[in-house]
Design goal:
Helix 2 runs antiparallel to helix 3 and helix 3 runs antiparallel to helix 4. By secondary structure, the chain is an alpha+beta fold. The protein is built from four helices and seven strands; from the N terminus they run βββββααββαα. It has a three-stranded antiparallel sheet, with no helix packed on it. It has a two-stranded antiparallel ribbon with strand order 4-5. A two-stranded antiparallel ribbon has the order 6-7. It folds into two domains: 65 residues, no CATH class; 85 residues, no CATH class.
Length: 158
Amino acid sequence: MADKWYLRADADGIVIHGFSDDFEVPQVGDVCINEQAGRVFSMQLSDQRGQPLYKLVDSQLIERSEEERYPFAERKADARIRLAESAEAVFKRAWPLVTILAGLNRTLPTSWEFNGQTVDMQAMFDAAFLASSQATLQKMAAIEAATTQEELEAALHS
């Protein structure tokens, strides 16, 4: 064989397969991209998430943009998942403290005197937990309302 590298694309021109003619016979429509590349095809064709990196346009290899690989709807769904995972991680980290406070709440007074003021420990804990939950819900609402990539980025970093 001649150690030629070939690419195969789907009906939309997205590169879905690459190979050397030492190991596979080219089919009609396969495009030779290098006639002296070597015996083993070693070009990375997809990113870490499995999305194809290239497309063929008039037999020319062109890198796909991030927007092509990850449409807005998919990015929005990913943002919702990341936010939910982050909120879950915060809750899991806080859970030991919650159980300690719950135990203390049964054995100690629920309010304390501090600098001449009465502090309601349960109300303070509830307020902190509620504020965290509300912030997560507000961020999720902002993600849902986003209609552009810029709005989505702003929601993620708010």
